[in-house]
Amino acid sequence: MKDLSVCVKRPLCLFCMSFIAGIILCCNAGLTLLLIFLIPCLFICIIFFSRLKNIICITLAALIFFTLGGVIFNNAQRKYYGAFNEVYDKPVTVEGYIAGEIEKKDNLIKFYLKTNKITYLKNEIKAAGKLLVSVSEENRAFDTNKIKYRTELSFSGSIENPKTMTNPGGFDYKRYLAAAGVSGTVYLKGGADLCLIGVKDGGWLHKLGFGIKNFVLRLVEQCLDEKQAGLLAGMLIGYKDGLDENAYNAFGKAGLTHIMVASGMNVAFIILPLLYIFKKIHIGNIASSIMAIAVLLLFVFVAGFSASVVRAVIMGILILLGKAVMRETDIYTSISAAAVVLLLINPYTLFDIGFQLSFSATLALVMFYPGIKAFIDRRPLPEIISDTLAATIAAQIGVVPITLYYFNNFSTISVLSNLLVVPVVQLITIIGFAMVFAGLASINLAVLIGCVNNTFLSFVLFVTEYTSKIPYASLKLPTPPVWMIILYYSAVLYFLKGRLYIKNFKYYRYLKYICITLAVIIIMVCNLLPKPLRITFLDVGQGDGAFIKTAHGRKLFIDGGGRAAGSKSGYDVGEAVVVPYILDQGTKKIDIVIATHGHSDHTEGLEAILKEIEVGRVILPDTDGKGFERIIEICGQKKISVAECKKGDIIRLDKDTVLDVLNPLSFEKDSLSQQSLNDSSLVLKLRYKNSKVLFQGDAEIPVEQRLLEQGSDLSADILKVGHHGSFSSTGEAFVKGSIFKYAVISVGRNNFGHPSPLVIDRLEERGTLPLRTDERGAVIAVSYGEGFSIKTMR
């Protein structure tokens, strides 16, 4: 029974973990399954702990928190995911008030709008929620001198339903916005009308916070150089727009991103001077704590409610409350309380990267810093170095799996850069606060203090830039699977924190054997179970991109998406979608990359693969090389072999999987290829046992007719439809002369009318199911050699 007494020491930690578990289970399995799962847990609790009153009470309370987490998440899902279901993508008139600061970025004016009324077809719809509104800077109706926080306005437009994750491991924009309480987006062009209604009362705390924030930003800009001002603004109040993207990338590579975020250190620098002053003027504990709490709450409004600031402020408030009642606050309980409060407000915060990084770093510091510090202190090192080294290593232990999971980046020089920078950061923050307070009295005094701080800030920027340029300062690594992250944290906890406690556990010997047995069984099952052929047709917008992993582990990428011809967009689909997807598959190597033809909407995304992923060889169609100049250049630089294929060639992937090349003919003999880049497309037929897939590239009707005349067997389980479903491909004769169960149409927003309704009708009339990536997201096809099972992301 003594072993179970550990459970009652910090019950709030257990309740917090139960609450989080309820959110995760409800998110992945739904509320019904969560409640079904709860019933056996109650029975187990009653059977095993019926004689232990303390344990059964805590266990029942944990189950209540578990259920509460699921119920609250379910309500939040309905609130944020379904707020505007009735009016998404319809022409509506919206009335509401601005519920945050107005920001200008990328030629757009952005703000949050709380809706009061939505009208559709002259009918008022009950749809209250928050919208993210983007207005073109060309819109003359938007006057920033008149339109501010709490301004009520109306406009006509269309509310868009934010995209959920459309590719495996991709960015879930809908969930990201839900963490900010947003349920829809609106884009208003230059000619859109905006009508001012008035100003809504209230919001004085926000207004005060915005006022202080803008004062700090103006003062920092006046007292410091541009880059130094941007860095200090992030360090003091968490303002993220002061530095450009290159500077952010440099901080990321150097492992110094954390210093640009307001967090616990800022809270400490606010509380400690205040408490010192209150003590000197003989203000009692309770009164001083209340006043300090009021200042901290105001700081939350100034810093914009970021997860790290809110967490630090809640912990600071708990410490102050403990001081007021003469009780020492347990740090683990404080962290748990902060997490529960944040998740009660909005359970989607759990999926916010800032929340995860903030809490993992804080927990790691609390748990591992003392042991690491004691180990380092065995060496004759100065205190400031050993302290910084211990804190950096402890924090890195906590956040490395999360940064790898989301960003695939591992900084190899973070310890060095932190050793150089962190001791200076504390000084910079103190001088920065001093500069702000001095600015209240005299701008000249603030400028003088700023000159001193400018030197230290320049040193930080210099170290960041220099260390980020060291070869292999940052490694691009595959995404670790969830089971590996769990294993990592379990091992860290065991070896750095809990080894002694677990060994003292009464049933440790049996637990050890059980774990070893389970590990052996899992490894054996994973290796003995047959592996399938898996093809993922990615959502790359208006382009093509397919990833193939054979049953024997060979990896192939066909096309990579990109910008349509003539597009001026700076969006790089390779960097944003294709490379992250490959890394998310747990690999940094592609055996074969194939470009079907030379149009940019098929080749541009491949450039990022060739630059950042290890590629075995590249296969192109037998043409004059038009459109492949950049690919050939990169292959030459990276010493990647390039081969050209034509009709009759066979690309052997493994002993069970081959690609038959059906088009083009040799370029000198192929009049179609010479006349049209689309008709020079590689048409490939993948064969795996009795499963077949036809990849058509952008080949059009003339190529289809030639293939039919040549008697080619075009029937397959899956057709990757040619030219994004254009009427110039997938002709009637081609559809009638072949048998397809599924037809994947890789398409995005476009002005070409893709896919053509005629093509959709032809396919459906033949009993073929069209699967559009713009509607369904990525299409995942899995085969064990007899047909395919299909799953779509949406």
Automatic annotation (TrEMBL):
Its main location: membrane. Keywords: Cell membrane, Membrane, Transmembrane, Transmembrane helix. This is Competence protein ComEC. It is a multi-pass membrane protein. It comes from Ruminiclostridium sufflavum DSM 19573. Residues 542-749 form the Metallo-beta-lactamase domain. Pfam families: Competence, DUF4131, Lactamase_B. The chain crosses the membrane at residues 20-49, 55-73, 259-278, 290-319, 331-351, 357-376, 388-407, 419-438, 445-462, 482-498, 510-530. SUPFAM superfamilies: Metallo-hydrolase/oxidoreductase. It is found in: Cell membrane. PANTHER family: DNA INTERNALIZATION/COMPETENCE PROTEIN COMEC/REC2, RECOMBINATION PROTEIN 2. InterPro entries: ComA-like_MBL, ComEC_N, Competence_ComEC/Rec2, Competence_DNA_uptake, DUF4131, Metallo-B-lactamas, RibonucZ/Hydroxyglut_hydro. CDD domains: ComA-like_MBL-fold (cd07731). GO terms for biological process: establishment of competence for transformation. GO terms for cellular component: plasma membrane.
